[in-house]
Amino acid sequence: MKKHNFYAGPSILPQFTIGKTAEAVKDFSGTGLSIMEISHRSKEFIAVMDEAQALFKELLNIPDGYSVLFIGGGASTQFAMVPFNIMNKKAAYLNTGSWAKKAIKEAKYFGEVDVVASSEDKNFNYIPKGYKIPEDADYFHITTNNTIYGTEIREDINSPVPLVADMSSDIFSRPVDVSKYVIIYGGAQKNLAPAGVTFVIIKNDILGKVDRPIPTMLNYQTHIDKGSMFNTPPCLPVYSALQTLIWLKDNGGIEAMEKRNIEKAQLLYGEIDRNKLFVGTVEKEDRSIMNICFVMKEEYKHLEGEFFEFATSKGMVGIKGHRSVGGFRASTYNALPKESIEALIAAMQEFESIK
Do 221 and 268 fall into the same domain? Predict the structure, then answer.
């Protein structure tokens, strides 16, 4: 039976990426060595790093004056690295979910944090509007896609202060005006590569403005100066990321991905809204196209476990919602084919017909 992978992360990767990575595990670039055992200082791996950074810039149309980094530690380490490097006294944050809260917690170690707005009052089922960004903040931080709750900021907002974004789960799902941001970061394991590598897009001139000493490995300038090779990078995930970037370019780039992602999301949201058993958990204007969350309607709550087992029997994998929301979550990242959405919809419709 075909499996349909809806895991939120680590999550589905293009078959192209999996195949090329599997080949490199056995024999990397004709060296007779595995990607897992070759030196990161070898000319073959340096070429991988250089090409991955160049393709990153090409696909996102990153302007001059920015660097692309591939480092370890996950987005969770970035929660501290961002304020460590660019907060002098005060930063502003938008609280839209669990990961935003974690970022806020880390920032408070470095100065004053102004939470300009929060959607926690309704269990993060919407994106706050109409808030004011303080002009005396060193930067404003947003989490563009909220994986657990299924909300997304799908525009590049205008900020009066430097803008920072955690784009862990929606990078490459839509075009981004990178010039509006000073830092974009994310864990790669949701839409780019296996777990283990973190990407950072950083405007070079935002650095060097804080007085505090910064430990070497937590200093962005360290990684810029050494081309992400100050220490041993996560070589295999970087190689896999390169394959995904090649796949993205070969399949029409970011604009084509956005078109497909919108189509997939519209299909599934349409079924959620039509089906008598299900209801979405998010305000419609803020629905994510990457993580689609839904539950059983109140009168059918007792059927949630039964539907989960039924969908699993039809090949659906990873659709159980996060414990803080419950219900179901279908993560519809770039590599997820439309056929998987259609299979989930068919399962929903069949279950509806027998209940």
Answer: no
Catalytic residue among 166, 170, 286, 320: 166
Which one from 20, 99, 170, 264 is the annotated catalytic residue?
Answer: 99
- Known catalytic residue at 43: no
Do 34 and 152 fall within a single domain? yes
- The DSSP letter of residue 206 is G
Is 90 exceeded by the pLDDT of residue 151?
A: yes
Same domain? For 127 and 193 the reply is: yes
| Structural domain range at position 262 | 4-11+252-353
Residues 238 and 262 placed together within one structural domain of the fold: no
Give 240-302 as a DSSP string. Answer: HHHHHHHHHHHTTHHHHHHHHHHHHHHHHHHHHHH-TTEEESS-GGGB-SSEEEEEE-GGGGG
The Cα 163–Cα 138 span in angstroms is 9
Contact between 214 and 84 under an 8 Å Cβ cutoff? The reply is: yes
Q: Tell me which of 20, 190, 203, 320 is the catalytic residue.
A: 190
Tell me if 26 sits within 8 A of 253, measured CB to CB.
no
CATH code of residue 90 = 3.40.640.10
Identify whether 247 is a catalytic site residue: no
Residue carrying the six token digits 């100065």: 111
List, as one string, the DSSP characters of 7-55. Answer: -SSS----HHHHHHHHHHHH-STTSSS-TTTS-TTSHHHHHHHHHHHHH
Q: In what order do the strands lie in the sheet with 291-296?
A: 278-280, 291-296, 328-331
**99 flagged as catalytic:** yes
Cα(319)–Cα(303) distance, integer angstroms: 15
pTM of the predicted model as reported, rounded to 2 decimal places: 0.98
Q: Which residue has tokens 């056995």?
A: 26
Distance CA 101, CA 105 (A): 6
Domain count, the chain: 2
Final residue belonging to a domain, choices 224, 250, 276:
250
pLDDT in tens, 263-321: 999 999 999 999 999 999 999 999 999 999 999 999 999 999 999 999 999 999 999 99
The CATH number linked to 338 is: 3.90.1150.10
